[in-house]
Design goal:
By secondary structure, this protein is mostly helical. It has eleven helices and two strands; from the N terminus they run E-H-E-H-H-H-H-H-H-H-H-H-H. It starts with 22 loop residues before the first strand and ends with a helix. The relative contact order is 0.11.
Length: 350
């Protein structure tokens, strides 16, 4: 047994002369240092002896080798045949429905805990750090002003240009202000701002939480008893709720300005006439409607993005997957919610 290098494999007929009922023992008097190659050789010998009906005496083996050999099975189980999945549409539909209902319940619980944390924050008893809330407000608000300005300005200019081409035919140039103001205040400013925030801030939330999950920071917070909802989720969601309505109002102002520049430069419209026509065409309740929609969009984007980050995997690829899912879910959710708001407004006659 004194040998350097890998051990030779056990021949297939190495125990052919062993009679049934005999005991196989090992002489390890010459063994010095050994590694897993010895365990592999002993396991082959053990399985061959059991197949021949012989017993095994492992008392002469080193204690550590004997323990390792005892952990190995006497036989290698044959791999189970792959299960064939039949065509069961009802089972798949039921499983998908149960999964969606479960996810809806989790989101509702998360939203309830966030609302409770917001109430406690107003009462001064929240367990979140104010510095985290301020950092999230800065990232979701002032840092997003540039892209909000560019998108809404160009959107207002496009609306004014399209409207001007048609309204010039009827000598109704001044009504470009009505078109731009109502479209931005009621629909486009809130929707485009929410889509931008879903792609910019929602994806960042999901990626950040997924990274913390992969680095086991979430596990560390749970071990020491710090609630994840208060420490991580609440500042992020509150920051979106506080900044989204302000960004919506800012987007309305910038978009109307963009439409005004196009209208004044292309049509027979004066700046004072454009402003006066806009103020008369857009009542205050339209701003309230868009303001409420922006808050609903903020809640949806914040909750879904954080939830996607929390259920992400722990690898680097899962971080990118979570960010992509958060962006797609946020954009689709914004459009779906806006459709729902449009239907409700039509029903109530608003």
């Amino acid at each position: 047994m004194a040998q350097s290098g890998p051990l030779p494999g056990l021949p297939k007929d190495g125990l052919g002369a062993v009679a049934s009922g005999q005991t196989l023992a090992f002489d390890v008097s010459g063994i010095g240092r050994w590694d897993s190659g010895l365990i592999e050789f002993l396991w082959d010998a053990k399985r061959a002896a059991i197949a021949a009906g012989a017993g095994i005496d492992g008392e002469t083996l080193p204690p550590s080798a004997r323990k390792l050999l005892g952990l190995l099975p006497d036989t290698i189980a044959a791999p189970a045949p792959p299960s064939r999945r039949g065509f069961r549409p009802l089972n798949r539909l039921g499983g998908a429905a149960i999964g969606q209902l479960t996810e809806l319940g989790i989101l509702s619980t998360l939203l309830g805990n966030t609302a409770k944390g917001g109430v406690l924050a107003l009462a001064g008893r929240a367990r979140m750090r104010p510095v985290d809330l301020l950092a999230n407000i800065r990232d979701a608000g002032p840092s997003a002003l540039l892209i909000i300005s560019v998108v809404n300005f160009l959107l207002g200019a496009i609306l004014a240009f399209v409207g001007a081409v048609q309204l010039q035919k009827f000598a109704a140039d001044i009504y470009v202000a009505n078109l731009v103001g109502l479209a931005l205040v009621r629909e486009m400013a809130a929707v485009m701002t929410a889509i931008i925030m879903a792609g910019r801030t929602g994806g960042a939330y999901a990626a950040r939480i997924a990274t913390m999950l992969g680095n086991e920071e979430i596990d560390a917070l749970q071990v020491i008893g710090i609630p994840t909802e208060d420490y991580i989720l609440l500042p992020s969601i509150l920051a979106l709720i506080l900044t989204m309505p302000l960004l919506y109002l800012y987007g309305c102002l910038v978009g109307i300005a963009g439409g005004g520049i196009v209208a004044i430069s292309m049509l027979n419209v004066t700046p004072a006439g454009y402003v006066e026509q806009t103020l008369g065409a857009v009542p205050f309740d339209q701003f309230v409607f868009g303001f409420c929609k922006s808050i609903a969009f903020a809640v949806m984007i914040g909750v879904t993005s954080c939830r996607i980050g929390l259920k992400a995997g722990r690898s680097a690829a899962d971080v990118g997957t979570a960010a992509t899912r958060a962006v797609v879910t946020g954009i689709v959710g914004v459009i779906a919610m806006d459709s729902l708001f449009a239907v409700i407004a039509t029903i109530v006659g608003f």
